[in-house]
Amino acid sequence: MMDSHKQLFFLSFLPLLLLLLSGHMGLQLTEAHLQRHEMNYPPKMLLVFGDSYVDTGNTRIDQAGSWKNPYGVTFPGKPAGRFSDGRVLTDFIAKYLGIKSPVPYKFRKLMLKQLKSGMNFAYGGTGVFDTSSKNPNMTIQIDFLKQLIKEHVYTTSDLNNSVAYVSVAGNDYNFYLATNGSIEGFPSFIASVVNQTVTNLLHIQRLGVRKIVVGGLQPLGCLPSSTALSSFQQCNSTFNDLIGLHNKLLNQAVTKLNQKSKDNSTFIVLDLFDTFMSVLNHPSTNNIKDPLKPCCVGLSSQDFCGSVDERNVKQYKVCDSPKSAFFWDLLHPTQAGWHAVYNKLQTTTSALRRLRY
């Protein structure tokens, strides 16, 4: 027992002690109620896992797309590893959180000062399972973070003050169809993709991240790769219905995760399906003139955005104004498209607000 003088002395310094513990001294908070208190403030780090919708430079320079002209023509003015003419979803989420876009994992040793904003582990073409891409799937991406924790690049306190964003944009399904997967078997494959996604979310949670966001699947039937057959005039409703099953199962699974969560973790679904559809159905609201037509296309069916022939002559064409197009190429939005999606997410859902508090 403390005597009364010592007790008064201790109590008088308790507010100062709590202030020092709250992170100003870089000390790790171990008590659950203090950890909860931390997340009343905007997170300090963003950790990103997934595919080309969020990749900001991990994909190799010798691979098609993100490092080739005309990618990056709007921002930063040259190819910089983003699958767009400019910024992608990662950049807008980071902006919302008030932090710099996280460093691509590939450049972690070259950008040491920026590691405090988090890290981007996403690679174009990947899925929760292996796809035709040789890039690391999501399980391997999470293993990269585990290794960084072992190397003390990030601490438990860092992870407690971070948000993870998980992007599953459809590469598993593209690979399933490309390898002669049947339409009859599609629903059970969708269930397996969602189950693996949940496994990945739990892996991230166990590393200490307490706010984990997963993107719902966008309307794949509205991507230019699906609408090309109709000269970019209408979405493929059959494909979109199957995507609806994915999103239904994902929402159900995330609801269960939140019900079972015992350590104040929060799982959030970002509704990209309805957000994309809202923008595509009301393009003029966002100054978009061509909602389904891609800005950058190959000159023939064998070519694509960024193609060149053996003499290095470009085999693609770019629209006059990427700012007025929603899609950049056959799969990815323009910076203007992502900006419209971001604006819609801010005004129509609570998901983004839940990232901050």
Q: What does the model show?
A:
With 357 residues, the protein is α/β, with parallel strands linked by helices. It has one domain (43-288, 336-356): Rossmann fold, CATH 3.40.50. The protein is 40% helix and 9% strand. The protein is built from twelve helices and eight strands. It has helices at 4-24, 32-38, 89-97, 138-150, 156-160, 171-178, 186-206, 224-227, 237-260, 272-281, 335-348, 351-356; strands at 45-49, 103-104, 118-120, 162-166, 211-215, 266-270, 296-298, 316-318. The protein has a six-stranded parallel sheet with strand order 2-3-1-4-5-6, sandwiched between helices. The chain is globular and about 55 Å long. One of its GO terms (biological process) is lipid catabolic process. Keywords: Hydrolase, Lipid degradation, Lipid metabolism, Signal. Belongs to the 'GDSL' lipolytic enzyme family.
What would a concise description of this structure say?
The protein has helices at 4-24, 32-38, 89-97, 138-150, 156-160, 171-178, 186-206, 224-227, 237-260, 272-281, 335-348, 351-356, and strands spanning 45-49, 103-104, 118-120, 162-166, 211-215, 266-270, 296-298, 316-318. With 357 residues, the protein is α/β, with parallel strands linked by helices. Pfam families: Lipase_GDSL.
Describe this protein with a few key phrases.
357 residues, alpha/beta, Rossmann fold, six-stranded parallel β-sheet, two-stranded antiparallel ribbon, 40% helix, globular, disordered N terminus
